[in-house]
Amino acid sequence: MNAHEVILSMQIQWALNRGISLIGSKGERGRRTYTLTLEQNLFEPLEERTKQQFRDGNGNEIQGSTDSPAKMQALHSSSALGVNIFQYWQKRGLYNEIAAACGFCDKGNKNSIHIDFERKFPIKTKFIVPPNIDVVISPQDQKKGKLFAVECKFTEAYSTTKHDGLKDKYLEEGDLWQEFPVLHGLAKKINPEDHEFTFLHAAQLIKHILGLTQAVNKDGFKLLYLWYDALGKEGAKHREEIEEFAENARADGVFFISKSYQELIISLANDYRVEHPAYIQYMTERYL
Fold it and tell me: Which end of the chain is flanked by fewer CB atoms within 10 Å, N or C?
């Protein structure tokens, strides 16, 4: 059984154990991996602010139709997992706690002020679709703190769908790469198709770095790759690819880190089980 199937099967069993009925991607058609309602797939319902941010994003995550559930209703939805992790802390104003757990800062940090989902970071106006970063934790004062950006991955890395390389139009913009000679070399290797990475979507991460740099400069952000680990060769290869990319990014002075969801959830459980028992129970039962 491959990594994608293992993760998906675990999520199906979690839903069935909780008495949650499942439907296919087309209602009665398709494998039954979608909840009947969006709320059934989340620890807490979406806040109105969060709903609007997803509506404004490019992923069309929460708009279903009469015969198809919304993408976020999928048990394997990375956006649902991201919401389950981050909205809880956003709702309670505990921005610094989750930022520290992610590895962005020390526990004593007090500069984080709010959390956004699906925030856009245009690279250049000529690029019609700007990078959408899954989660962004903003500082109260940009001069004293950094922007914390999170790219969230659940089962996507292990699916059979091949990720895109970097298109020519990015390499044609020479000024984008002045601060990134090493990443520029990597970008050339994955242009126009990516034959370097099997599980890591390197082109997407490079675009995130370019977009963030346009917004706050290279020293104004930290980027976290938050991913779901898997046992076996697929998980091991994914970890190798993450480290390979990290070495390239760090060589260009980019603050890039990675953490598995399992590591993050265990860290949260160790630190906050007493104060937040229902949340910790839900996250550990579902994702560990």
Answer: N
According to DSSP, the residues that pair with 112 across neighbouring strands are: 139
Distance CA 2, CA 237 (A): 13
Q: How far apart are CA 212 and CA 202, in angstroms?
A: 15
pTM over 0.85? The answer is yes
Given a cut of 80, is residue 66 above it in pLDDT? no
Residue 125: count of CB within 10 angstroms of its CB: 7
Cα distances (angstroms) measured from residue 277 to each of 39, 92, 117, 215, 285: 20, 15, 25, 38, 12
Looking at residue 143, its pLDDT comes to: 73
From residue 72, give the alpha-carbon distance in Å to each of 21, 51, 154, 167: 15, 11, 12, 28
Q: How far is CA 208 from CA 119, 123, 133, 170, in A?
A: 11, 9, 7, 12
Token pair of 173 as six digits: 């913009």
180 to each of 207, 219, 250, how far by Cα in Å?
A: 12, 13, 10
- Nearest-5° Cα angle at 151, 44 to 63: 50
Q: Identify which of 44, 63, 41 has the alpha carbon closest to the alpha carbon of residue 54.
A: 63
Tell me: the pLDDT tens digits for 26-37?
A: 878 889 999 999
Range list of H helices, the chain: 3-17, 48-56, 78-91, 95-102, 168-171, 181-189, 202-216, 232-251, 261-272, 277-287
Q: Which of 232, 161, 171, 173 is nearest to 199 (CA)?
A: 161
The owner of tokens 């970008």 is 187
Q: What burial class does residue 81 get, using C-beta atoms within 10 Å of its C-beta: 0-12 exposed, 13-18 middle, 19+ buried? A: buried
The letter for the amino acid at 266 is I
The tens digit of pLDDT for each residue in 12-24 reads 999 999 999 999 9
Tokens matching residue 58: 């490019």
What are the CA-CA distances from residue 33 to residues 2, 28, 54, 82, 145 (Å)?
A: 17, 11, 21, 18, 41
